[in-house]
Amino acid sequence: MPVSKPIQLTLSESKDPLHERLADAVEKLIASGKLGRGARLPTHRQISTSANVAIGTVTKAIDLLERRGVVRSETGRGTFVSLAPDVENAQIDLNFNVPLPVISEDEFRAAATLASARLGSVPNGGYPEPGGGSEQRVVIADWLATTRLTVDPGNVVITVGGQHAIHLAFADLVGRTQTIATEAATFSGAIAAAANLGLTIKAVDHDEQGMIPSSLKSALLETACKAIYLTPVCQNPFGFEMGMKRRQEIVEVCRRADAYIVEDDIYSIYGQASIRPFAEIAPERVYYVNGLSKSLTPLVRVGVLIPPSGQRGTVISRVRAELWGASPFDIEVARALTQADVLIKARDLLLTEAKVRVELTRRILKLPDVPMPQGAPHIWLPMAAAQAEKFARLALEKGVRVTPPDATAVGGEKAGGVRLCLMAPPQRASVERALHLLADLRDGPTAQVV
C-alpha cells in the first residue's frame, strides 16, 4: 500500500467555503496522479500545515471528499485515495443520471445496523405491508415536507423506487386512457413503462418551460387522451423548470379535459421553493412520484407514489398483486438515514456541487445561459438533430459517454441535442476534462464532421 508523502496544496481564491476549496485542491492532486490510487493521504496535521488551515477545516474537507467518492477512511489506519478513481484514459460517463456518492461507509453501516435491529418488529414474519407501514409512511411524509410537499401519511404508497411508482401510476390510468401526453423528449423509463402497459405516448409541443398549454389542449382533444406525464423540475432531458403560472395553466387545461397528471418530481431537491408541486395545486387529479435515487442513492430502492384522492385503494391492490410491497430492510435503511439527517446533508452537498458543475458547463461549452443556474443534475447541449447522434458516437470514441437523442425521443422525431449528466462522475476534475473534450469535438478542427 503506497504511503503518505508531503504534498503542496494551493487553494483557489474563489468565494467558496474554505473546506470546499481545500477538498478541490486535494482532488486536483489526485486527478494529476501526484496522489495515486490506494495512496494514504498525509495526516490531518500535515494537510493543515501545508494548506495553512485549521484541523477542523481539514476534517470537513476529508468528509466532503469521502462523500464524493474520492477517498475512503479506514478506522485506525487513516484516509486513502479510492482504489478506482477516474484516470486519464478512463471513459467518463455523462450518460447515467446518478448522484455523487454522498453517504459515507460509516453512515451506511450505522443505518444498516439500525435497520437490522428494527426488522425484528416487522409483522407477518417479514412480509411487508403493501404501501408501507404507518411509521414508515410518516417518515416518508416528513421527508417530502422538506421537498416542498405536505402530504397526509395515510395517502403515501411506498414503492420500489421511482420507476415502480411511475409504472403503478400508468397502470392505474389504463382504464381511463390509452394515451399519455408528454414533451417531445422525456424520461426513457416512462417510455418503457407506457410500452409495457400497451399505452401510446403522444408528443406535445413545448418551449423553455415545458408543455405549451394550447398545444396540450389540442392534443387532448385530438386523441381523447386523459393523462399527461411531466417532470416539472429539471425536465428530463431538457433540464428546464416549469414556472408557477405555467403549472396553473396546465392544471386548468387538464381540469377542463378531465385529464390526470403524473408528476415525476424525482429532482425536487433542485426546485425553487416558491414554485409549488402539481400535487399541491390539484391533488384530486395528480399522481405524485418521488424517490431517493437522485437525492441520496439508487442503492436504497425506495420511492413514493401519492395517488389522487380516493385512488390509493386501487394502487395498493396493484402493489400487492405485483410484488406485495417494498423491501422492509430497504425502507428501514432509508428511515434510519432520514432520521440521522443524512438526507439533509446529502441535499446540501448535491445542491452546492450541482451549482458549481452547471457553471463549469456554461463556461467551458460557452453557453449563453442555462435553464437552472442554481444547479441541476443534467443539462441539454443543443445542436441540429441530424448532428446529435453523430456527436454522441464521436464523443464515445473520445472517451465521453453522453445520452443520445434517440434514448429519450417520443415518436419518430428526435430532439436536437444530447443530455449531459453532470453529477455522475464522482470527481469534479473528470467532469471538467469531459467538458473540454466535448467543446473540442463541437468547435475544434473536426467540428465539420459533427
Written overview of the protein:
The protein is α/β, with parallel strands linked by helices and 450 residues long. It has three domains: 18-81, Winged helix-like DNA-binding domain superfamily/Winged helix DNA-binding domain (Arc Repressor Mutant, subunit A, Orthogonal Bundle); 92-103 and 345-449, Aspartate Aminotransferase, domain 1 (Alpha-Beta Complex); 106-339, 3-Layer(aba) Sandwich (Aspartate Aminotransferase, domain 2), CATH 3.40.640. The chain has 15 helices and 15 strands. The protein has helices at residues 18-32, 44-51, 55-68, 105-118, 134-145, 161-173, 188-196, 213-223, 244-257, 278-281, 312-322, 328-339, 342-364, 385-397, 428-443; strands at 71-74, 78-81, 92-93, 157-159, 179-183, 200-204, 206-207, 210-211, 227-230, 260-264, 286-291, 303-306, 378-382, 400-401, 417-421. The strands form six sheets. Strands 4-12-11-10-9 form a five-stranded mixed β-sheet, with helices on both faces. Strands 1-2 form a two-stranded antiparallel ribbon. A two-stranded parallel sheet has the order 3-14. Helix 1 packs across helix 3 (55-68) and helix 5 (134-145) crosses helix 12 (328-339). The longest helix has 23 residues, at 342-364. It starts with 17 loop residues before the first helix and ends in a 7-residue tail after the last helix. The model has no long low-confidence stretch (mean pLDDT 89).
